[in-house]
Design goal:
Layout: H1 7-19, E1 24-29, H2 33-41, E2 47-52, H3 58-73, E3 80-85, H4 104-120, E4 124-133, H5 142-145, H6 157-160, H7 172-196, E5 201-207, H8 222-237, H9 247-258, E6 269-271, E7 274-276, H10 285-298
Parallel strand pairs: 1-2, 3-4, 4-5, 5-6
Antiparallel strand pairs: 6-7
Helix pairs in contact: 1-9, 3-4, 4-7, 7-10
Length: 301
């Protein structure tokens, strides 16, 4: 599981253990944070281990995947029943590069998951589930984000992987467009995984809704950080907006999806607690195939 260190991922990890104490959770996180989270989660005899990875570096992600695969082959880990790609990042521009020279949002939100899934594909046992956290910002309308995040602007995947792919790349709007576009890309890949992964490995995308206070906006301006860190969480708690989801609920919903308590066929889009239809734009076989071919090329070792 990536993104288990904080926010809905941390809550989901706790909820997973509450529902099924037999789970062994492998936390994939940067530096010492994974070990810290694993130590905290393992209290009470829970089985938790960690593998270090910087999701902004594909070499680091490959090394983490190889370490997990080795532990599986040696029997040091129990059979692999799932993967949760919950980590995500949003920048205040579209100019930030990852270690490999690709745009950082695309690297973390799209390419890192692909590297892990492809590297571990042969290790999944039957009745496994891959869960990828996406976002309803991919709809690009006021109903789903109150105009706070611009909608996706799809382009050739090779261009999306580069910096300056969007207008006025130095602006926060460009950074947020990179984010919503990366989440559209993640949904495209979920559809393609559903067609390409071996039978018995289900893959679903999970939308938590707008979850304020998670730290996703930590790179934003002071006003946005205040709104998303203080005002919106209060509105969600008081049920003043149906768009927002509390961290507690979002984490619980994610745990239910991961454990299969939320019934969803492979390729499904789960909106919080139920299967729903993602945006009309998110169903495009040509884009899905083109994106698959591009990420395969970009992530080749």
């Amino acid at each position: 599981m990536t993104g288990a260190s904080r926010g809905i991922g941390r809550i989901a990890a706790e909820a997973i253990f509450q529902s099924d104490p037999r789970v062994h959770l492998v936390v994939v996180a940067r530096g010492d944070s994974g070990r810290t989270v694993a130590s905290e989660l393992s209290k009470g005899g829970r089985s938790v281990s960690s593998v270090s990875a910087d999701l902004g570096s594909l070499d680091s992600v490959r090394s983490a995947a190889a370490e997990i695969a080795t532990q599986l082959e040696r029997g040091e880990l129990p059979p692999l029943h799932g993967f949760v790609g919950n980590a995500g990042i949003q920048y205040t521009n579209a100019l930030t590069e990852g270690a490999d020279g690709y745009e950082a949002t695309f690297t973390v939100n799209v390419l890192a998951n692909h590297v892990l899934i492809r590297a571990l594909e042969k290790h999944f046992v039957p009745n496994s589930r891959i869960t990828i956290t996406v976002s309803d910002t991919h709809f690009g309308d006021f109903k789903h984000n109150m105009g706070m995040v611009p909608g996706p602007v799809w382009q050739a995947p090779e261009k999306l992987a580069k910096t300056s792919a969007f207008a006025k790349p130095t602006t926060t709007a460009a950074g947020r467009t990179a984010y919503s576009t990366s989440k559209l890309a993640a949904i495209y890949l979920v559809h393609e995984y559903a067609r390409r992964l071996p039978k018995g490995i289900d893959v679903v995308s999970y939308n938590p809704g707008f979850v304020p206070g998670t730290g996703l906006a930590r790179n934003a301006d002071a006003v946005s950080r205040f709104m998303m860190g203080r005002v919106m969480p209060l509105m969600a708690l008081m049920a003043l907006t149906s768009m927002a989801t509390s961290q507690k609920d979002a984490g619980r919903y994610l745990a239910d999806v991961v454990l299969g308590k939320t019934t969803a066929s492979t390729g499904s889009y789960v909106d919080r607690a139920k299967v729903d239809r993602s945006s009309d734009e998110s169903y495009d076989r040509t884009r899905e195939r083109d994106l698959w071919n591009t990420v395969e090329k970009l992530t080749a070792a």
